[in-house]
Amino acid sequence: MRFRLTPRETSFYDMFSASADNIVTGSKLLMELLGADSASRVEIAERMRAAEHAGDDATHAIFHQLNSSFITPFDREDIYNLASSLDDIMDFMEEAVDLVVLYQVEELPKGVAQQIEVLARAAELTAEAMPGLRTMDNLTEYWIEVNRLENQADQIHRKLLAHLFNGKYDAMEVLKLKQIVDVLEEAADAFEHVANTVETIAVKES
């Protein structure tokens, strides 16, 4: 790691970890959604909304700290990109749950469970990686694995789309389900954006 003569604001590390931990909470709520009945889904959506608001608060705290800090642990643009991408993940997960409730989807295609499992694993890896920003050690495996998971998510998404357009669903149901699986795919993309930002930071700091 580069040797620095100036002190740095270290609270960013804790805030990034808190944001990532909140994403793990969101991924667990997504898992709960699978197989839940209508009443339970409404309650899950309420908890997901609260988690999303907590994520917004965490993001705003990072931005406030960024604007008030003279010296930052790494480039300001990278801090902004990392915080924004973490926030995007929660936004997409909350949107997916909300759509399931609003559209009153009775049964989700089996592939959705695979999408959510990939997101849950990516959430765990991201939460485990955030403390590593302090030293930039042992992060390579993290971004390689998240990129692999995103490729897996792409494959699942394509198979889901093929399933939705095989003629077994009516047109309105296809529109509803496609929007849900597309939003879950966007969450997977956002995890990759986080991993790519961490890689960029690590390369700059090496």
Question: What is this entry, summarized?
Answer:
The chain is mostly helical.
Account of the 3D structure:
The structure is a single chain. With 206 residues, the protein is an all-alpha fold. It has one domain (12-205): Methane Monooxygenase Hydroxylase, Chain G, domain 1 (Up-down Bundle), CATH 1.20.58.220. The chain has helices spanning 11-33, 38-68, 76-102, 110-129, 140-164, 171-205. α1 (11-33) runs antiparallel to α4 (110-129) and α4 (110-129) packs parallel to α6. Residues 1-7 have low confidence and may be disordered.
Global Rg: 18 Å
Largest sheet: none
Query: Beta-strand level of the residues, as a percent range?
Result: under 5%
Low-confidence stretches: 1-7
* Coarse morphology: globular
Question: Into which percent range does the helicity of residues fall?
Answer: over 70%
Q: Between the first and last Cα atoms, what is the distance in angstroms?
A: 5 Å
SSE inventory with pairings:
Elements: H1 11-33, H2 38-68, H3 76-102, H4 110-129, H5 140-164, H6 171-205
Helix pairs in contact: 1-2, 1-3, 1-4, 2-3, 3-6, 4-5, 4-6, 5-6
